[in-house]
Write the structure tokens for this entry.
Amino acid sequence: MSRGGRTKDRDVSERRCIVTGETAPTVGLIRFVVGPDGTVVPDVLEKLPGRGMWVTASRDALDKAGKGQFSKSAKAPVQVPDGLTNEVERQLARRVIDLIALARKAGLAVCGFEKVKGWLAGGEYVRALFQASDGSERGKTKLWTPEGARYYGCLTAQELGLAFGRQTVIHGALASGGLSNRVVEEAAKLKGLREIDGGEGTSGKEK
């Protein structure tokens, strides 16, 4: 694949981050475009028309991009909205919630301590373990991340609740297949933007 070129396989498509200057797979980058009024607009779904500007999915990189890198990349003065990084975080959180909800409706996701524990102990092909960032640490350490699975603690109990159609959820698991890879990709981006880190301790070990 040529550098920077789009391919039909989004997993191998690469772009150069306008902040770090490094070329990386787009699954770890956030796309932005310049709107008709000269304002920088986040394109979380990667569908907006226009020349894309790509930034590494981290709070530090996004904050730096707003301090001149967008204008430099666009080769013209652009307007960077206040709170752009927070808006990207909000959109990504909504995206992850919506994708988990779709996976749940497809029978690929469960919630609740006992159900999740049952999946983990029963040899289910778990793709990812989700636990609420504001959940009890004691309760979260009673579950484990299976070999080859991913762990995410970047959603709150209320946000996980939205994904599973409940008021709050502390524990959730995602099976392999279907939308699972896309959920994992978007959750990884969100994790990069959120300063909270549920990736420590027994429950959070990525193997």
User: Anything to note?
Assistant: Residues 1-11, 196-207 have pLDDT under 50 and may be disordered. DSSP finds six helices and nine strands in the chain. The first strand starts at residue 14 and ends at 16.
